[in-house]
Amino acid sequence: MDKVNDALESRGDKPVNALNTIRNDILAIENRWNIVVEQIRSGREIKYRYENPDFSIYNTPLSEDDIIQLTESVSILRRFQGMPGFEWIDELNARLQISINAKSKPVIGFDDNERLKGMEHFSELFNAINGENAIKIGYKPHKGDVREEIVHPYYMKQYNQRWFLFGLNDQRDDISNYALDRIQYILEANVKYKPNTTIDFDKFFKDIIGVTKKREQEAVTIELLVVADQLPYTLSKPIHRTQKVVRRNEDGSAVISIKVIPNFEMKQLLLSFGERITILSPKYLREEIKQRIEKNLENYT
Question: Which residue range forms the structural domain that includes residue 264?
Fold first, then answer.
């Protein structure tokens, strides 16, 4: 137990304080690798060793479950192949495939945009977040010229095949998001990094669709009429995690509700359903979408 605790403490883990923990771990080793750990008594002392002196857990062949899990890991890592700063993944994938005798061709596809601009900044931003380094970025919005901003980077998120950086804007002292394809350059910022002490990003996105969120906005309940042909797809792939069925109609359609903060991405998503989904409430949102549809129709007259 002393030897185990030396190893645990050197890794910053809590030490073991019960001999039963050691005994249970030895039993787990026997069950996991289907081997025998024998006890050798020497006076009052008990020594433990493998019954087979040539056995080592590091030389045992991988189980079928191990191979499946590693193959899944290789498929996920392939998403980063070719990304600047992640060249080591190519070598790691090759080694894993040799070790597990994995198929050379991928069996999982991801909906990525390989021609997306700005991905050359990904690893630099990734390192800035992990290293807690403030950065200076040149950012070109949809309208206007390039503006230079100091950002304390906190988080990156992918939505609709685009990556976005979230961080504290030093000038506005507020959280902003930046599309990577609109970042023109990244420089070191000679300012002290301000760590994130206010936002839990796991919760930050729970009441929105997409990435746009303003602090003063609150979530509202939106009711939608879904036609019968669309309903099975909407039920199997909810528009938002808060989706609920309010009532089902005799014609096979249904009224569903979601509780979200209305933003640009949500409106774009609802418009993409066309005639298959109709906004019933709130009234102001229904009128806004109606006006956008009427404006769109003018382009076809």
Answer: 220-298
Backbone angles phi and psi of 242, in degrees to 5: -90, 5
Q: What are phi and psi of 221, to 5 degrees?
A: -85, 125
Tens of pLDDT, residues 20-50: 998 899 999 898 888 999 989 888 888 889 9
Query: What CATH number does the domain containing 125 carry?
Result: 2.30.30
Residue 38 has phi, psi (to 5 degrees) of: -95, 155
pLDDT one-digit tens code per residue, 231-283: 999 999 999 999 999 999 999 999 999 999 999 999 999 999 999 999 999 99
What the block records as the tokens of 72 is 């899944």
CA neighbor of 177 nearest in space, from 146, 204, 198: 204
Question: CA-to-CA distance for 177 and 166, rounded, in angstroms?
Answer: 4
Q: pTM of the predicted model, to two decimals?
A: 0.69
Instruction: Give a yes or no: residue 214 inside a domain.
Output: no
CA distance readout (Å), 206 to 37, 134, 212? 49, 27, 12
Contact 265, 159 (CB under 8 A): yes
Total residue length of the chain: 301
CB burial of 56-92 (b: ≥16 within 10 Å; e: otherwise) equals: eeeeeeeeeeeeeebbeebbeebebeeeeebeebeeb
The reply to whether 251 falls in a domain is: yes
Count of domains in the chain?
4
282 plus 248 within the same structural domain:
yes
Contacts of 112 (CB under 8 A, 6+ apart): 79, 161
129 contacts: CB under 8 Å, gap ≥ 6: 153, 154, 155, 156
Look up residue 3 and give its two tokens. Answer: 């030897």
Distance CA 174, CA 116 (A): 27
User: For 16, which DSSP code?
Assistant: P
Residues 196, 198, 202: CA angle, nearest 5 degrees: 85
